[in-house]
Amino acid sequence: MNTYLLKRARIDAEAGIEKAHFLNPRARRCNKSLGDLTGLTGFGFHLIEVKPGDWSTELHRHYYEDECVYMLAGVGTATIGDEQFAVAAGDFLAYPRGGPAPTIQNTGDELLRCIVVGERRSHDVGDYPNQNKRIYRNQGLPWNLVDIKDIETPEGGEKRS
Amino acid sequence: MNTYLLKRARIDAEAGIEKAHFLNPRARRCNKSLGDLTGLTGFGFHLIEVKPGDWSTELHRHYYEDECVYMLAGVGTATIGDEQFAVAAGDFLAYPRGGPAPTIQNTGDELLRCIVVGERRSHDVGDYPNQNKRIYRNQGLPWNLVDIKDIETPEGGEKRS
Amino acid sequence: MNTYLLKRARIDAEAGIEKAHFLNPRARRCNKSLGDLTGLTGFGFHLIEVKPGDWSTELHRHYYEDECVYMLAGVGTATIGDEQFAVAAGDFLAYPRGGPAPTIQNTGDELLRCIVVGERRSHDVGDYPNQNKRIYRNQGLPWNLVDIKDIETPEGGEKRS
Amino acid sequence: MNTYLLKRARIDAEAGIEKAHFLNPRARRCNKSLGDLTGLTGFGFHLIEVKPGDWSTELHRHYYEDECVYMLAGVGTATIGDEQFAVAAGDFLAYPRGGPAPTIQNTGDELLRCIVVGERRSHDVGDYPNQNKRIYRNQGLPWNLVDIKDIETPEGGEKRS
């Protein structure tokens, strides 16, 4: 079988990785990264399953990476910034860089299944509004997580520091 | 309605853009770019419809951009380099940068529907093996298309030319 | 006169910008950015003058930007990490990304003059070892400065947070 | 001796690399890349020597890389696009991306010595106006050189080709 093709039966047989968000144990999902399985590195392409009552992720926003969700099955409630919306199969949610923080809760009785696509940049910054925390992700460094209240924003008055 | 959410009914009502490949009139499809409709710029996210007998694209390969396809409905024959494979709903095809050239023909009787995701880099190079042509796409310049036989590959012996 | 050419007399007549480092008032210099004056954006090219006793910059290291210094006149003591070296006209100092933190003190009686070249990336992280502080510079966001002791490094166990 | 410091005596003792441009044997110089010698990768920093009568490079322009020259010794005639200028020690020449094509001829009796700094991007396109040729430099591919008359500029009408 060609390594560039994953047949549906092969995808269904895949166990997937159970992931809980490091800041929120109720933000948990089963993740089959079809992109990782086939050697894609330019973006992430994931099949996600969220159980009834669980959230797809801790509410967060990226400053530099676009992300989106295409609903395949089940129903949920999407939070986008301050607003909430019912979502179902065939709906599309866009999370452009710098936009409001989103998450989706499975508010139905069956599995919520969706495709999640996200950029994989060398550098990103993200905020967790409900935790008052900011994360810095820079290639080659460990993730850096800080309380937003501990961040100073000096005026350098110059390009080079 | 939130601009970050496209409900299924809204997507269905969208006319889409009929696109024929500039090098092959039988490589034609109807394209609803959900990413463009919602302001994503970091990658393209497209719903594609290909009619029976048509091809999704002219056979081509990217040197710098990853691309992938997730089949939603219909059946087709995927060409990946020298090989051919039957594809149907739920199948996933990965086209990693530098890999073999792919395309999909709708070999069934109904619409072939799929999701296509692709990187949007500032710079890319692509080959059309059946046309013996290479394309250079660089942000801010028009596309440059050349016959591969007209390309020289000098040894510069230095970094700066 | 062509805007791409700065004659020596024109450079000499330039007042330059007096800059003190926001973390250290004795790290101060007069900066003539020849690159800025001529519209270069891909890197910084600066003529720097440091008075006797002053430092070229607060000791710092970049994680993602290369920088270098070419000495034109005067004498100084360069600190590179834990070591110190005498420097004079014609010497070259390289500060590769991720390397030890450098600075130069003018330890002579006349002006220390040098060329400083540095990358201008969209994203960088820097440390000030003598201040126990880290700076995050990301295009479009204000500089973020934190005490290194306030940084957590969680193990996410996943690509997407 | 610290690997980040090149003393003047060490630089003077360096043989340098004699380079002739692959498109013009009279465009030749002796190149000491201080950046390469010290492990810098983010840009090139070169000490260049051009003999009386020779040119620093074949006339060319970069579409994506900035470059600049700082004159250290000798005299020359700079060509920038259609114009010519006398240059001498202490002069600065900026070659911003997309600007006119430059080169410098040593029109004096002694060595012309200068610093050349240039970006090192993963992707660049350059033109040689006197040769009617274009070069495509993309990381991981050999240089591609074509006659400009052989380039087509198709209107694709779509993002994805």
Protein traits:
homotetramer; 161 residues; mainly beta; Jelly Rolls; 6-stranded antiparallel beta sheet; 4-stranded antiparallel beta sheet; 14 strands; 6% helix; globular
Report on the architecture of this protein.
4 copies of one chain form a homotetramer. By secondary structure, the first copy, chain A, is mostly beta strands. Chain A has a domain at 14-122: Jelly Rolls (Sandwich). In chain A, 6% of the residues lie in helices and 49% in strands. In chain A, the strands form 3 sheets. In chain A, strands 2-3-4-11-6-9 form a 6-stranded antiparallel beta sheet. In chain A, β7 (75-80) and β8 (83-88) form a beta hairpin. The termini of chain A are far apart. The model of chain A has no long low-confidence stretch (mean pLDDT 94). Chains in contact: A-B, A-C, B-D, C-D. Chain A binds chain B through residues 2, 4-8, 11-12, 34-35, 38-43, 45, 65-66, 68, 70, 78, 80, 83, 85, 87-97, 99-100, 102, 115, 117, 119, 121, and chain B through 2, 4-8, 11-12, 34-35, 38-43, 45, 65-66, 68, 70, 78, 80, 83, 85, 87-97, 99-100, 102, 115, 117, 119, 121. β1 (5-6) of chain A pairs antiparallel with β9 (92-95) of chain B.
Quick structural summary:
Chain A is built from two helices and 14 strands.
